[in-house]
Amino acid sequence: MKKKKVEKKEIAISVKDLHIRYRSLKKFSIKKSLLKMKTGRIEIFEALRGVSFDVEKGKIIGIVGKNGSGKSTLLRSIAGIFSPDDGGIDLHGNTVSLLSIGVGFQPALTGYENIFLSGMLLGFSEEEVRAKLQDIIDFSELGKFIYSPVKTYSSGMYSKLAFAITAILETDIMLIDEVLSVGDIQFKAKSYAKMKELISDTNRTVVIVSHSISTLRELCDTILWLHEGKIKMIGDVDEVLDKYQEFMTDDALKKEEAKKREEEQVTKAIKEQVKKNA
Amino acid sequence: MKKFMYNLKKYWNYSIYAAKAELKAEVANSYLNWLWWILDPIAFMIVYTVMVQLVFGSKEQFFPVFVFVGLTCWNYFNVSVSGSVKLVSANKAIVTKVYVPKYILLLVKSFKNLFKMMISWVLVIVLMLIFKVPFHLTMLNWFLIIPVLFIVTFGISSILLHFGIFVEDLHNITNIILKLIFYLSGVFYSIGTRLSNPLLKRLLLKCNPIAFIMDQSRNVMIYGKMPSFMWLAIWFVIGCILSWIGISVIHKYENSYAKVI
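Output (structure tokens, whole complex):
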């Protein structure tokens, strides 16, 4: 199941020279600007600096990178939550959903009502949700609790329901941000299997962000490695992941060394101080 | 505008469902909550009636109904406008996870507030029966006045929604301005009879949309007078323009909202 063959190469996602900056629209307060009478220093943080890639229809692409390398930003901009500051994203008319937990839930209402609320917010019609309703309830394993208010749920039940909604209501492109661990061991296995089933559908394009190398090795066709807002590598799964692991362990070692050196210097300084005092 | 129509169609059912859900949630939180939808305006009506009768002495006919009609219009406007400033940050959980046109959030709130206002209007009829206010055919004009109130409120709210995201303390300022408008709108006094300066009277009654709508509602509901169709049309057009501005601004900037909040 790992590598799928798609006969004609149809592109589902094209990202072109994407730049996302957190700057242009900074909050300000009238009180502060009255007191200071000058505009604050504008800080520019460029989360993505010129990312371009294409994803073929039906492919599964994994994104790796350190914390703060722009993975989630990229995912959110594909989902249409952020607009690009430069460059563009073309989804070629495909529907997209960010697989996220419990969007738009009203805690005081029952799980049943929240299925509709969340589903309709994700852009499905009431009929579409109704058609999938039984599947969602079955998959969530909530049984009669589906008619109790969501605020009375345990956190496991809550995430089971949320996962069931996003997993059963399918879109052409699925964006997954570290959600493979939900519920108890049994449900985890089940949701992992469901996830595999979902993403191995040849019509569905999937983008996964994960820190779990083994998951990515098993699921993906291509790996995209983001480093400080730029693509460091893109290509074959094993090749990129091996390099990435190597890089990360190197990085960790370097950091540890730096830390040790610093500690040594501090102890040295203390010793000298003690000597002087003596 | 085409995009707006498309989105409106797509999210129409969601807006209604979400508004219902919010109302239900309010009731579910405490079973007496819906009683407050009724008690709240009535209590305030009593407060203003007692205060004005005692302190100022009023000659208005059917004074409690007069105040209640004013409060009904005012509450809708006030809650919608002051809520719109922090609307997007209040819905942070949704906005950062899924794309939804931001004026849909506003629409959800509008529907919710409209429903509450309708309850209040039913109470107006009840009060009219209690105080033996004669019913007139002019009451039918109510159906013209409410859309004007809706569109003007929506327009102002949509513009505030946008600026509320970037200006942190905008809600402090809106609250002050709303308080000012409240006193200038004649919720518990009649601008027409209380003010002697004709220019000021005209200015307040025509240029303050809420005072204007309150005045017109009272005329058609209580006093059996016809509304000023010309001014209703003018305010309807202004409301449409404001909404159009708000929607265009939101369309242009809405994808940056998630970065700021």
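Chain A has one domain: 11-29+43-235.
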